[in-house]
Amino acid sequence: MTRKSGVFYIVITGALIALCVALPLAVHAIPNAGSVLSPMHIPALLCGLICGWPYGLACGLLGPLLSSLITGMPPQAFLPPMMVELAVYGLVTGLMMRLVRTGSLMGDLYLSLISAMLLGRVIAGLFRGLLFAPGQLSLAAWASGYFVTSLPGILIHLALIPAVMLALMRARLIPPRYPEGA
Length: 182
Hints:
Blueprint: H1 6-27, H2 33-37, H3 41-51, H4 53-71, H5 79-99, H6 105-132, H7 139-148, H8 151-170
Helix pairs in contact: 1-3, 1-4, 3-4, 3-5, 4-5, 5-6, 6-8
């Protein structure tokens, strides 16, 4: 299968930005589910993996912004750090998929996802603590908010996203990472 065109990646990015608006609406019917399950993270991570870093970066920035403008979620106080976090997710997953080739699809996916999730949380915490809310974020609050509370979401993302990527490749909707016989 040949590499997809730029139009394909723009369409996929647009659909994933739309999911950044739709998924939180579905999840927020359950109290505190948004902060626990982090539904908006899924499209940003997928966009970087499928489309590459420029598209992933755009999805990470535009998804939360449009969701906030359309639905009010995330609230304005949380919007800037969330945009930073998701932009880093899209950027890092896209870069990692371009640079890392372990010979194993699952190895590549997990290295990309874990790197993005760690860097995104660290950088968002730094931005939030230093720029967006200086002096209002302690190390304990950062660890609790970015890791402890969202642990169920992290685990769901690590299970769901590789399965989605594998299904998309098997269905030939996206090019295979390691084509058979190559």
